[in-house]
Design a protein that fits this description.
This protein is mainly alpha-helical. The chain is built from 26 helices and eight strands. A three-stranded mixed beta sheet has the order 1-3-2.
Length: 598
């Protein structure tokens, strides 16, 4: 409560009242200016915890936001494990002064003129140690000393790197400023320059370059490009031409990774699902999505067009994780960093890369240049980076998420994904699928050939009635030809004096049996007919061609026809002959005689 039982005002309430009177009316402009001063931050403990993996936490390893080789700025100055580099910092300062002929006092004066601004850049700076007169009155002097020494060290490192380690004012076997140092020391210096708690404002470098090399070498763009050439995470980065001096190396790297026009802000759409994120690369590939490298290396250049997901190329090595952690922390801690686009990119990549298979697919598409030697290591790196990350719902990548998922949810793509997921991993399943497909095609073809004649008959019959397939004899009888021929046979038989039941036979000498066959010379007339049995009795030399006569087989019938033609003295014309049917006629033009056997 604000008041105690005796009506006395509590001390904290009185303090609040005094502060209100002292500050007066709230001034948003003044508050904005206050927060604008800060650009280098101590990373809070909860963010540091998210930045450590399980193995790092177990081994109490250094935070990815802190230096491992060299301290820059006041936050980690004097740390025991970083003290060995202090000697090399002092050597760099001495070499620079000897080579340029400048005085140390000139450098001090240049930096001291902006010492207040430089001190304000460090949030939560210990004023008693670095600004006040504590510890013997050397707080401010100590701060200027650190700024000048660290600034000259970075200038010498970048100068040595520019010429490939071939500098003439250092010994060839110098442990730092030589080809040896460029190969084994500079990668760690470059990494430490991009640690959030180890930043040196570029204003320091600008003031020093102005004294040592002149004002024309110390323009905003010149300083930005000098630092960018050393710390860039991409080869041949485009120049940082924002027209303003960057805050520190992290700000330079951040601007470089996000070069190009900023994408339009995502507009929330009705019915948008809160968990509508991009699935893994494996799932996307199963749904028919292709991967391709974007035209630029800007992390903003992520897009989805016509079934292809375009992602910028990123080189991954042992220092990439720490650099991305610090870039994300910069976006998280510095309100002036604008949208959290590096964080959005990391969040997006964590969605796409869930396993080593996903990382391998992106490496094959030239999107990830893997210098870690293991696809699993790449996947684990992005999983650690995205832990605890906060994604702005207005990020343009949300539009990419929606476009990719809309494509993936199309019915044909869902079917494709299901087919690939359930069958593509098993070779026997693939063989079975191919066989089933072939059988299906053959079944369809068979059905078509079965149904097609029916529809052809329907069209040929005028579209009405039932189509019936009939044989030659039935068709011959349906047309009435059989009756006409039999009548003609009877007429000719009467004209030649031949019995009408004898087919094709001429009148001959000798007696004829009851069936019209010649039985002259028969010794004894024997009747052995069994009722109901079919009788096959004939004379081989005088064949009987009576209608309905039965022969043992088609071979005997054909032989009988040849003999019958010889006996009747006419030339036989074959119309059709086969295993089950025989059709013949008289070869004389106009002769109506013919015979059918089956």
């Amino acid at each position: 409560m604000g008041e105690d039982r005796k009506g006395m005002v509590a001390p904290w309430v009185a303090a609040v009242e005094r502060q209100l009177k002292q500050d007066g009316v709230a001034d948003p402009v003044a508050e904005a200016a206050r927060w604008r001063k800060h650009s280098v931050y101590r990373v809070p403990a909860h963010i540091k915890k998210d930045g450590k993996g399980k193995q790092q936490q177990a081994a109490a390893a250094a935070s990815p936001y802190e230096p491992q080789l060299v301290s820059l700025g006041p936050f980690h100055h004097g740390r025991a494990d970083l003290l060995p580099m202090e000697e090399h910092k002092r050597r760099a300062l001495l070499h620079l002064l000897r080579r340029t002929g400048r005085r140390a006092g000139d450098l001090v004066l240049a930096v001291e003129a902006v010492a207040e601004t430089l001190g304000d850049a460090y949030m939560d700076l210990d004023d008693g140690r670095w600004r006040g007169d504590g510890d013997g009155g050397g707080g401010r002097d100590r701060f200027v000393e650190v700024m000048v020494t660290d600034g000259c060290f970075l200038l010498e490192v970048m100068r040595t790197a520019e010429v490939g380690g071939e500098v003439d004012d250092y010994a060839a076997n110098d442990p730092v400023f030589s080809r040896h140092g460029e190969l084994y020391v500079f990668p760690y210096v470059r990494r430490d320059m991009l640690m959030m708690e180890n930043q040196l404002p570029l204003l320091v470098l600008q003031r020093l370059v102005g004294v040592v090399y002149g004002a024309h070498k110390s323009t905003d763009d010149a300083i930005n490009d000098m630092v960018l050439r050393f710390v860039s995470m991409t080869p041949d980065p485009p120049p940082v031409s924002s027209g303003a001096l960057a805050l520190h190396p992290i700000d330079v790297c951040h601007r470089s990774l996000l070069h190009g026009a900023p994408p339009p802000t995502s507009s929330s759409s009705k019915g948008q699902r809160e968990d509508d994120f991009v699935p893994s690369a494996t799932e996307l590939e199963q749904a028919g999505v292709h991967f391709s490298r974007s035209a630029t290396r800007s992390l903003r250049d992520v897009s989805f067009r016509r079934g292809t997901l375009y992602i910028p190329e990123l080189a991954v090595d042992d220092t990439t994780e720490h650099k991305l952690f610090s870039l994300m922390a910069y976006e998280r801690l510095h309100p002036g960093a604008a949208a959290n686009e590096v964080t959005a990119y990391v969040f997006f990549m964590d969605s796409v890369i869930k396993s080593s298979d996903d990382a391998r697919r992106l490496s094959a598409s030239a999107i990830v240049d893997n210098g870690l030697g293991s696809d699993k290591a790449v996947a684990e790196m992005f999983n650690r980076l995205a832990k605890g990350a906060v994604l702005d719902r207005r990020s343009a990548l949300h539009d990419v998420h929606r476009e990719v998922n809309a494509y993936r949810r199309k019915r044909r793509n869902k079917w494709r994904a299901s087919l690939v997921q359930n069958h593509a991993g098993n070779p026997w399943a693939i063989v079975s699928l191919v066989v089933a497909f072939v059988l299906l095609v053959l079944t369809v073809v068979q059905t078509v050939y079965t149904v097609l004649p029916y529809y052809q008959q329907e069209r040929g019959g005028g579209g009405g009635g039932e189509s019936i397939l009939v044989g030659d004899d039935q068709f011959y009888e349906l047309l009435g030809l059989r009756a006409e021929d039999e009548a003609e046979f009877a007429r000719q038989a009467d004209a030649h004096g031949v019995r009408p039941d004898v087919v094709g036979a001429t009148a001959g000498e000798g007696a004829a049996g009851a069936d019209g066959c010649d039985v002259t010379g028969a010794a004894i007339s024997v009747h052995d007919e069994v009722p109901g049995d079919r009788v096959m009795a004939y004379d081989p030399n005088n064949r009987c061609m009576k209608a309905s006569t039965v022969y043992p087989n088609m071979k005997e019938f054909r032989f009988a026809m040849r003999q019958f033609a010889i006996n009747a003295e006419f030339e036989l014309k074959l119309v059709k002959t086969g295993p089950e049917r025989y059709i013949a006629g008289c070869k004389v033009e106009g002769c109506p005689w013919h015979i059918v056997g089956h």
